[in-house]
Design goal:
Keywords: Glycosyltransferase, Membrane, Transferase, Transmembrane, Transmembrane helix. Belongs to the glycosyltransferase 2 family. It comes from Sphingobium lignivorans. This is Cellulose synthase/poly-beta-1,6-N-acetylglucosamine synthase-like glycosyltransferase. By secondary structure, the protein is of the alpha/beta class. Among the domains are: about 1-30 and about 275-380, no CATH class; about 45-125, Rossmann fold (3-Layer(aba) Sandwich). The chain has 15 helices and 8 strands. The protein has helices at about 1-30, 60-65, 85-95, 110-120, 140-150, 170-190, 210, 225-235, 255-285, 290-295, 300-320, 325-350, 355-360, 365-370, 370-380; strands at about 45-50, 75-80, 95-100, 125-130, 135, 155-160, 205, 240-250. The chain has an 8-stranded mixed beta sheet, with helices on both faces. Helix 3 links the parallel strand 2 and strand 3 (about 95-100). The longest helix has about 30 residues, at about 255-285.
């Protein structure tokens, strides 16, 4: 009957996406991080490219934390990109090599990275590391990241996490937990399934042979994600290296919402365009890892997926009450319950330090807090790059 068809149409997409997410979560919970291979006897030369736009308030502290990791084989280059403050002067005073770029017509990190990459062509390193100006990576983790990229000949993404701080709001803490699920549990799960890693924009390393011709100079909202898709398609699938961690401090509650709006809109727009073609290409080329990459890409951010699934569940329950088959509602309810259970298991394994169980009880409020992000997406979405304020900035 018509009501049954409507119920299945409402349930089919969220049900399929929840199943994909559940498989990836289960794989991530059960998997153990792969042991990195022993480094070769030689130490590859690496250059760290650090794009910085109006980072005068924190660039000195970032360089100071990174300085112990630098030696004769690892150099740091700050690209002061369209700055209107003293970022360049402060970075030079802190000891970094600084390039200044002024081109307001072409804004965004991709253009800054291309500018820095082109400066390296005269004496190219073996490996290029991209590190944001508000991020931190330890000396041993940085060396492991460089060695892994140089040895494998592939892009390598470290485990990129947001550091929990005393006094963070409940919404910020839950957002940090969602970030951890995406960047640790799901990345680990995807790696165990043979899929490429998703590039996170920072804490990532590239062999020069790949970086030299990479399509960096774009103004895309999620240029790192698009770059990873390009590498995966060309047979250089990015690898995930959980043993190396890149840390960043979270933004304030208000600025976290701004930051997530930009990233999630760019992610969803890219997933809608690229997810199914990647899946079909993986099937057609007998590359199951690429096919799973396409499926994984189509899973929207957790808050959107859970909100949409709950809305679909409510609609299918109403239809069941007026005579439609209850099977779509039952299937969707079971998938939601399984996903929630796996998320709690992921929290028990990896997320206890990021967020407390009491704070997780506020997830319904978090879903409501994210509604403006998705309403804005429905009205057309964010299309321009907006710098997120750092902690302590007005």
């Amino acid at each position: 009957m018509i009501a049954d068809i409507i119920a299945w149409c409402l349930a089919a997409v969220p049900l399929a996406l929840l199943i994909v997410l559940a498989i990836e979560l289960l794989a991530g919970i059960l998997a153990r991080p792969a042991r990195p291979a022993a480094p070769d006897s030689g130490r590859p030369r690496a250059a760290i490219l650090m794009p910085a736009h109006d980072e005068a308030g924190g660039i000195a502290a970032t360089i100071e934390r990174l300085w112990p990791a630098l030696d004769e084989t690892i150099s740091l280059m700050v690209i002061a990109d369209n700055c209107t403050d003293d970022t360049a002067r402060i970075a030079r005073a802190a000891g970094a090599t600084v390039l200044e770029r002024h081109d307001t017509a072409r804004r965004g990190k991709g253009h800054a990275l291309a500018f820095g990459r082109d400066h390296l062509r005269g004496d190219p390193p073996d490996c290029v590391v991209v590190l944001d100006a508000d991020c931190e990576i330890g000396r041993d983790d940085l060396r492991l990241l460089i060695d892994s990229a140089a040895r494998s000949g592939r892009p390598v993404q470290s485990c990129y996490l947001l550091r929990s701080r005393p006094g963070d709001s409940a919404m910020t803490q839950i957002s940090n937990f969602a970030f951890l699920i995406k960047n640790r549990v799901r990345q680990r799960g995807a790696a165990s399934l043979g899929a490429p890693a998703i590039l996170g924009g920072t804490g990532m390393a590239f062999p020069w042979t790949l970086m030299a011709d990479a399509p960096l100079a774009t103004s895309h909202l999620v240029e790192d994600l698009v770059l990873g898709i390009d590498f995966a398609r060309r047979g250089h699938a990015p690898a995930y290296l959980e043993q190396a961690t890149t840390w960043s401090d979270p933004a304030s509650q208000k600025d976290t919402l701004t930051q997530r709006t930009r990233w999630e809109h760019g992610y969803i727009q890219t997933a809608l365009r690229q997810g199914l073609p990647l899946f079909a290409e993986g099937i057609g080329r007998l590359r199951p890892g690429l096919a799973w990459f396409g499926l994984s890409l189509m899973v929207p951010p957790l808050a959107l997926l859970m909100s949409a699934s709950l809305a679909a569940l409510s609609a299918t329950i109403v239809l069941a009450l007026i005579g439609a088959s209850p099977v779509p509602a039952l299937a969707l309810a079971l998938a939601l319950a399984l996903t929630a259970l796996l998320l709690m298991l992921g929290w028990a394994r990896d997320g206890r330090q990021a967020v407390s169980a009491a704070t997780l009880a506020r997830i319904p409020l978090y879903l409501a807090w994210k509604i403006p992000v998705y309403l804005r997406l429905a009205r057309g979405g964010e299309t321009r790059w907006v710098r997120t304020k750092r902690a302590g900035e007005d």
